[in-house]
Amino acid sequence: MARTALRGFAALLTTVATLVAAVPARADTLRIGYQKYGTMVLLKARGTLEKRLAPQHVTVQWTEFPGGPQLLEGLNVGSVDFGVTGETPPVFAQAAGADLRYVAYEPPAPTSEALVVQHDSTIHSVKDLKGRKVALNKGSNVHYLLVRALREAGLDYGDIQPVYLAPADARAAFERGSVAAWAIWDPFLAAAQKQLHARVLRDGTGLVDNHQFYLATGDYTKRHPEVLEAVVDEIRKVDVDVHDHAEAVTKQVAPLLGLPEDITLLAVQRQGYGAATLSPQVVATQQGIADTFTALKLVPRKLRIDDVVWHPGGSNGVVAAK
Predict the structure, then answer these.
(1) Which phi and psi (to 5°) does residue 253 adopt?
(2) How is residue 165 annotated by DSSP?
(3) What pLDDT, on the 0 to 100 scale, is given for residue 311?
(4) d(CA 46, CA 8)
(5) Which CDD domains has this protein been placed in (predicted)?
(6) Per DSSP, which regions of 47-189 are E strands?
């Protein structure tokens, strides 16, 4: 099963090749992968990172991905230097041998992901999912949420029928009734609640932290620690603005996401803000996620998360940032 999971992850290479132009980046280009949520959308729109890096003669190239697993395959094949994902994709990427480093993380946001069902569904508890089809993006943050929610309900992962679909395809399957439930994150979750009147069966409260992680290639952390420090600093500035002015920021973000303001505001309010380098507690939590998937035989070997955490000036050979 572990080999099958990793083969599925590796199969995303073809998808990534269509998303990212196969043109070698210049040495002074920082290639960022982002998704349609979170701080990075606003950072891209504001252009403040480009201004910050201009004195270092570094330009920025942005590529949007449909989910964390696809983004990290971009990092794995050398098309991306830096990106943001949920907590589960880095585990699968590390298991697949990707050269990645955890650079920073955002505070917990457990309500920004959930298992949802149709508003008139006869399913009223996670336990009712036994034998049913559940849509999710394989290897994404909601993969871990689903595992934890099933365990809480006294079910094993094998008790449900996982249907692995990217968000757009999963929504279509959910609307048709081809799946009984959908495990999804914001802003897709907020859109499902507002537009489809989807009912939350279980969100992450008390189950998962749902951290967002900023990641870079190991090679980039060694060669450009000062660039990464600048990136994290600019992310923190946007975080403060979003936290303090959620409604005003929503008006900026909504057109970028192509979503109505009420949906965008709900997603913005549920996100965690305050990027920081990883604490021992966060590393331990992430280690627990990795161990869970190892126990499920979805990854083939025990992983050490601390082996792939960026330690400026430490064991990963990174020169201390100034």
Answers:
(1) -80, -35
(2) -
(3) 83
(4) 36
(5) PBP2_SsuA (cd13557)
(6) 59-64, 82-85, 100-105, 113-117, 133-136, 161-164, 181-185
| Distance, CA of 266 to CA of 299 (rounded, Å) | 34
Task: Give the DSSP letter string of 210-232.
Answer: ---EEEEEHHHHHH-HHHHHHHH
- Residue 294's alpha-carbon distances to 1, 39, 87, 263, 302, in angstroms, are 11, 31, 15, 36, 6
Residue-range domains of the chain with CATH: 2-108+210-308 (3.40.190.10), 110-203 (3.40.190.10)
Helix (H, G, I), strand (E, B) or coil at 274: coil
Parallel/antiparallel/unpaired status of strands 133-136 and 113-117: unpaired
Of residues 218 and 18, more confidence is placed in 218
d(CA 266, CA 116): 16
pLDDT digits (tens, 9 = 90+) for 120-131: 999 999 999 999
The pLDDT value given to residue 313: 59
Helix (H, G, I), strand (E, B) or coil at 235: helix
**pTM passes above 0.90:** no
